[in-house]
Amino acid sequence: MKRIPRISRRVTSPLCAAVVLLVPALTSASLANADDGPGPLGVTVVAVDNAQSRKVGALFDADRRSSLAGGHFCTASVVYSPHRNLIVTAAHCLNGSKDGDLIFVPGYRGGQAPYGTWTVRKAFLPDGWAKGQHEDSDVAFAVVENKNGKSVEDAVGGNPFVAGVATGATAVTITGYPSAREVPVSCTNRPTRHSSTQQRIDCPGLSGGTSGSPWVNGDKAVVGILGGHEKGGSTDDISYSVVFGAEAAELYRDATN
């Protein structure tokens, strides 16, 4: 499970700390390759601050708005929608939350919110999760409030959300926020089939807090969300996503309407 329980998100395990040791050892060339292209596959690095990584942000309890450092527990990202106000994450990240309980901070780094804090106003969970927390339904959308007449998509842009893409058709890049770090990390690799409804990827250091991280393919489309089997994986090195099918596509339509 790669969501950090909000009552204990400050705890750093030895596994979580592993990514702290991994990132500084990599070269700047590795950082650029992993973020800007297919890069070195299966290597986790600090995500470069650019137009793509700014669409990804951390989730916090709303009462952390004035004190963000150390408070994030999951990851989310902006996806295209008619009203330009939609984020996608794992369903288990929003489970039990009420309107206004959470905030989304795109491009979060070092306790700062360079693109603002956005209140999560309404969550959309699939029936399979709402009725039974089924791992094959571990994806969710949420509408965030506009700020001063501006939408979150106006602020940082978004990615298409696409269902029906074959697992492993291209490599994907995962960007997310481990709870032990105050910057996002990124890893590119090719997903493989875990089951007919789940896909997996080998990327080191994707520890607690990375639940909800987008899997973005070569067309810059979100084709997976870190979650699903074992709520994203029981180890830091192997992660999972629901295979987006009819349920995910219908949920997206509901959220955009």
UniProtKB/TrEMBL annotation:
Keywords in alphabetical order: Signal
UniProt entry tagged with the keyword Isomerase: no
Comp. bias (Polar residues): 187-200
Organism for this UniProt entry: Streptomyces longisporus
Region (Disordered): 187-214
Top-level taxon of the source organism: Bacteria
Transmembrane segment boundaries: none
Listed PANTHER family: SERINE PROTEASE
Stated name of the protein: Trypsin-like peptidase domain-containing protein
Signal peptide from the UniProt entry: 1-34
Statement: the UniProt record of this protein carries the keyword Signal: yes
InterPro entries listed in its UniProt record: Glutamyl_endopeptidase, Peptidase_S1_PA, Peptidase_S1_PA_chymotrypsin, TRYPSIN_HIS
